[in-house]
Amino acid sequence: AIATAQHFTYVFYNEIDRQKLLREKDMENRMHLALGDDEFVIYLQPKQRLEDGEIGGAEALVRWIDPVRGLVPPDEFVPFFERNGFIIEVDLYVFDRVCAMLRRWLDEGRPVVPISVNMSWAHLRNNDFLEPYDRIRAQYDVPAELLEIELTETMVFANPELLIGVIDDIHRHGYRCSLDDFGSGYSSLNALKDIDVDVLKLDRAFFSDEDADNEREWNVISSVIDLAKKLELETVAEGIESIKQSAMLKEIACDMLQGYVFSRPIPIEEFEALLSSGKEE
Ligand code: C2E
Ligand code: MG
Ligand code: MG
Ligand code: MG
């Protein structure tokens, strides 16, 4: 009986691996064409300023609108593209679309807020990783202060010395820089003494699913916010789903919130409408 069970487990995992491999092979075959065919689309998730409830910025998040599979979320292709290097092209495409959008807002006299983009660690293998970013930004003549580059906490753990240099480069090129997913994994508070970013994005791991009155939890969150303030970092709480959490965050003076309670990631046109409606009132 034991042998049979093991046999089944073995077959089961192999089938999953096999399907994953086939999916990845399929993505590999189609990714270049998909980029050319505009199948990668940018969604924007607003960040809400807690002080006045207004939109203080947005994060650009990529989706793959596949003619066969429909809307594919980034978790299903970003990790694979990070391994095969294609993420570099996707990130630059996202950056290009964001710069084009900001140029249009500026030209049309629309309300403008800073936009953040995610930068994969894969770029960092190249010493001149900011050169293509600068070229795109110059092409659209967008002020660098309107652009924020999100680096993830995993990079801190992987290579803190490299990261310190990378943040320095990003600043020298004029971009704002944030540390994404802070608190999701291995980062220690001690690392913050060297990580000279502008913005700390608290991962949703800090916030439990239920909006339970967890006093210990909120003590931890407010201490991290206080520490960030002492270090003159702006704070953004990610993955906030309840009004109660939002009220608590305002109370402990977190600067911004990004979460479903305010808005899910939305298409650019929807974001523009939201931004304009807010500014008219
Ligand atoms: P991230 O950069 O930490 O982005 C935040 C993720 O949290 C987004 O998932 C967003 O939809 C989700 N989120 C926001 N508010 C809530 C909430 O209230 N509840 C829940 N459950 N989730 C919320 P998304 O868009 O699926 O992206 C997942 C990850 O994929 C991103 O995490 C980022 O690491 C990566 N990613 C997305 N776009 C890009 C890109 O253009 N380039 C690179 N390199 N990575 C990207
Ligand atoms: Mg991010
Ligand atoms: Mg994040
Ligand atoms: Mg994340």
Automatic annotation (TrEMBL):
Domain of life: Bacteria
Sequence ranges assigned to domain EAL in this UniProt record: 24-279
Protein name, per record: PAS domain S-box-containing protein/diguanylate cyclase (GGDEF)-like protein
Organism of provenance: Raoultibacter timonensis
Portion held of the full protein: 312 to 592 of 592
